[in-house]
Amino acid sequence: MLIRRHIDLVNGKDDLAPVISRHQLAVQEQARTIIQEAHQRAEKIISAAEQEAEASSLLVRQRAEEAFWKRADTMFMHWQKQQQQWESDVLSVMDVVLEQALEQLLTEVPESQRLQGLLRQLLLEKTQTDKATLCCHPSQQASIATMLENYSHLNWQLQPEESLPPDSLKLVTPQGELYLDWQLASQQLKPCPVERQAP
Question: Based on the domain organization, do 41 and 114 belong to the same domain?
Answer without folding.
Answer: no
